[in-house]
Please model this.
Amino acid sequence: MKKIIFGAMLFLTGVISIALLLAGSMANDWTLNGQSSAIWNISRYGLLPALYTFLGIAIFGLIFAIWGLFERGN
Model:
């Protein structure tokens, strides 16, 4: 049960971090060919490594929570 909660919290942390990063990048008025681009804005700020890190945390948390679901309890 502890693994499920820990994994779910990691997943939630990663997803919220990604959402905040994407929302913050679109707060600026930069456009690419007349259209706003979140990934382009994030790369202009140099935050692509942070985006990938948050994505990795979310994926790891999801895998850890699923692993906790299928593990046999004592």
